[in-house]
Protein 1
Amino acid sequence: MTKDPQLDRPAIELTSVIKRYGSTTAVDGISLSVSPKEIFAFLGPNGAGKTTTIKMITGLLRADEGQVLVCGQNMHNNGMVAKRRIAYVPDQPFLYDKLTGREFLCFVARMYDVSEATRDRILDDLTHRFDMRAFLDQMTESYSHGMKQKVVLASAFIHEPDVLVIDEPMVGLDPKTVREVKDLFVEHTARGGCVFMCTHTLEVAEAIADRIGIINKGQLVALGSMAELRDKAHQEHSLEEIFLHLTQEKDGFGDGC
Ligand code: ATP
């Protein structure tokens, strides 16, 4: 993980970001800052704009308006530098069918100029934690969804990124691996990294996120820790109740964010 000279600088900073697809405004003026050492959960109903936001953070899409910074680097003007600091795990794991899991992980390590010693250290640790030894040397075309997800998650850690951006991190994983992923997130933030995850699994968000953002129809309608979201709700609501209230009814809690 790169040592950041400005430790209080946000890991991710979106300023008035807008993204349109034709006449559809998928992301409508979002401003959001995520700190190093923070696990941030980004929630929202289907079609709310989560994936579009993630694609702008990771540089796969360009914002029509506003600014996206990753570790202080402008994702549009300085994308190569920003992308070295980030790892992205999409909700549909992509692997090359004719490579083994190990070959894929070595390929990713080489792309990021990871030394063989570092690669082998991280790979050994993750092979053990994700129970990958039995299949890592088979071609990935034979893998189940969960096996693919494990290898793709491992590839996100191999270059020790500052910012982990993960779409639905736990879907398809067995309970032991879910526990390992949660532990890895906590260890990553303890080392100064940040995790930005999208999920529909509210229990996961409630259990491990330091802060939660809820997007609805392209706009951020709530932002804060669970305690702050409950405060805004003026009573003890579960995250599920808060989420449904903010995304299904006309009136939110107070002024939302
Ligand atoms: P889900 O939870 O269903 O994955 P999401 O919150 O990730 O949804 P997005 O995929 O960001 O939502 O979509 C936001 C809006 O933008 C939706 O109205 C969607 O139809 C639209 N949209 C997304 N991608 C495109 C595209 N390539 N072309 C046109 N419209 C798009």
Protein 2
Amino acid sequence: MRLNLFWKLGFAFFALLIAVLLPVDFYAERALRRDYERAGFEQLAAIARIALAYPPQPAALAPSHPQDSAGLRGWVAKMAASGVRVTVITSDGQVLADSQSDPQTMENHADRPEIRDALATGHGQSIRHSVTINSDLLYQAVRLSSAGASPVVLRFALPLQTVDQEIWEFRRRLWLASLVVLLVTGAASLLISWSFSDRVDRLTDFFHRVAEGDFRPLEADRAGDSLEALAISLNATAARLDRTIQTLTEERNLSSAILGSMVEGVAVVNASERLLFANRGFAEILGLDVPPQSGSALLEVVRQTELIEAVRGVLKGEPRVEAEIVTGTLRQHFFAVTVAAVSAAETSGAVIVLHDITELRKLERIRRDFVANVSHEFKTPLTAIQGFAETLLAGAIDDPQNRIRFLGIILEHSRRLARLTDDLLKLSKMDADKLELEIRRLSVSQFVESCIETTQRPAAGKDLRISVKLPERLPDIAADRRRLAEVLQNLLDNAMQYTPAGGQIMVSASANGAEMTFTVSDTGIGIPQADQPRIFERFYRVDVARSREVGGTGLGLSIAKHLVEAHGGRIWVHSEVGQGSQFYFTVPLFEPERTTLRPPR
Ligand code: ADP
């Protein structure tokens, strides 16, 4: 590129110079030649005038003894001293004398144009090649008439060779001077074109840089011309482009970070049902190992017909379609699907948003079940109370034997109702986040011992052995003594209720990291694997009849779970049917700064 522009400009300059020089040379040569010829003729005319003023002796011109014309030769030699060729010719063309040749050897000159003209008019001129002396000459001829004799022609000639030489000399100088001018101006023009093409090249390089994303400004060359103005405006354009691209990149990064970190699944489909974009959430919800490639067909990625139908609805012109899909077989997840039309520039398509509503559906189910369960739980004792009260009113009150029994049953069922109401109240308090914990420093051994004390007697009554296994020097924990006692008591009650006589119950604790893990294990009936994840749900019982029989409400474990979690711990179970169960729960260790800061809940 550099050489191209440089040479192009250079050659253009040379061509221009040559184009000017050639016609100058041509016309100068012609003008000069004309000038020289005119001057030559003038010189010849002057000599001719002198010759006519001082003609040769008429005797010398007598044709009777032409060869004996020493006088004529002398005259010719004198005239020729001016540097011209002098020839004397008779009217019939015979050469009488010549300053440069022997007239004997010269041919008849009657046909020479200047001679003919001189004889006819008195004057003759011509420029032509001389056969006699073999060179180009300027001829000027005059007629010399003398009385009584036939006229003769005096001819004077100047060789053109000197003219040619002078013209050639002039042209040589012209060309030499032009060459010098050519070289000087050529060098200057090359320098200018070089610097010009260099600046154009720098602009081109700058364009390439910008095309590749490098927006550093071009150095100013301070030439003050339009190229500099161009460079300045290009710099401004590049800076603006840079800012725009940076803003766009930041916006794009922000949107992809937002879309990428969203738990909602988001995807965009074009009019031909091909995915243009899908975030990680979308792939995870649909169980895809990797986010689908842009351009893959929606049908290959998605199996849920409800979703495909919704997309098609929008692609057919609906502005927005809502649907619901279910994923997973064992653990089902519910997703609300919103498909909305998008049209950007000339393309149209649909944006899909998948929102997890599993928790909502679960809560709805729990609420439904809860209402049914509560009604059911209340119904049995109420029916019993109502039935026995009616029986008593109907006359059984007078039956001293049954009266006491019936009243006993009524009392048992009303206690059950009271327990249920109690548990429900606790739960509703916890749900409303109104449970206030009084977190204090608690010694594990003291806490466990006090709980066991109240359990020892009923356990002994059921032929169960309770043991405590605590390592020495356990760190203290941070807990609400009353609430945590409720948890441990509940687990101990369950262990006693679901362990046949002769069984063993053990309470142990161990510190690990920042928490204490309590374990209540029994050698009881155990819990089937499938029920284990659900026993912490409200009203969930493995064996409903048995639970009722032992006076359970089905709420104990869910209350325990709430209380443990309110302390910042976890609760879980390991169990095997027929072997026994181990319930675990954790409580944070006492740490002076953290514990005092912990607000009551
Ligand atoms: P309940 O009042 O019925 O005991 P919980 O919420 O305390 O209710 O327990 C839920 C269910 O978990 C019980 O009905 C029982 O089937 C089972 N369960 C709890 N503890 C034990 C245990 N130690 N051994 C066997 N099953 C248990």
Protein 3
Amino acid sequence: MKTTLSVIKADIGSVGGHICPSQELLAGVKEFVAQQGRKLVMDTYISHTGDDIAILMTHTRGVGNEDIHRLAWDAFVAGTAIAKQQGLYGAGQDLLKDAFSGNVRGMGPAVAELEIDERPNEPFLFFAADKTDPGAYNLPLYLAFADVMHCPGLVLSPKMSKGFRFVIMDVEHTEGDRVIELNAPEDIYDIAALLRDNQRFVIEGIFSRATGEQAASVSTSRLHNIAGTYTGKDDPVMLVRSQGIFPATGEILGPYSIGHFVAGCMRGSHTAPLMPVSVNSPTSYFDGPPLVSCAAFCVHNAKLTEAADCFAHPFWNHVRDKVSRKILEMREQGFSGAAMLPMSELEYTGVVEKLNSLETRFSVRNEKHAPAAAAD
Ligand code: MG
């Protein structure tokens, strides 16, 4: 019997702007899943990161299962009713379609799933990021699965020496899933050449080359590709298995000490460092900083242990101080240059209308009528 891990998340309304969901909203989603999911799922864990609610479910129905996706969708619809009742900001904002159609992919919520043959001990990590997009995981995954400077297991563990296969998606291609498969270590320059472009090329999955087993699954949805306009940042979720033939948990967490710059933050339009935070953390400064939480579990016979909050350890206070310094440095330059995302990312925002309105006020200067140089 295979176990499926499914996490589906959405922003369906939050308190005080983009801070966090209300307690009543969270309780409503939990109650809905507990009642309606009784015969469908083996176990659940519901949490929030910033303004996003994530429903983690274990079951035996495989990935992309209609009943599982419908359960999450219906829970978010029920939650949206509560959010509207309470007048929460952005009630239902990630539910971009009117009716469920078999799978939440392409409908607004983000989804990451793994179907696994459980090992006798099966540790895995559930990441949730807010105020950023799926490319935020590119660098930490590359460093954990392909860089010996960050992952000593690639050198020290014979089980990992065959490397990993990266499945990378071109998320700008909207007419279908455009993917490429590349192998580490021999293709690492090619992998890096793609992953440097976090807005276009996103790691969808990583697989062990020793056994073929899947190590990581990342949500790849870009909301503006679905809605055709800016509706909020994509706020990706991710599942990563650890230990044994996969990197150790600490090797997977290590790269988050960098606080690397990602896309997102205020109005989804800025460059800001990614801050590792505790599970159930709100957002704050400048509608950010972009944040990532990580809950670690073991799963056995599709039953979850309690969650271990990976970024709650005091070590991460030091990292958070560093990230705070980095975002303050970047914010000093406001709208200028690297502080704000390039036009390719802003084309779904109101800045396009502003630039269009200025078009008619431009004129091309005729050199013949240029002001004469002042006489000596
Ligand atoms: Mg969000």
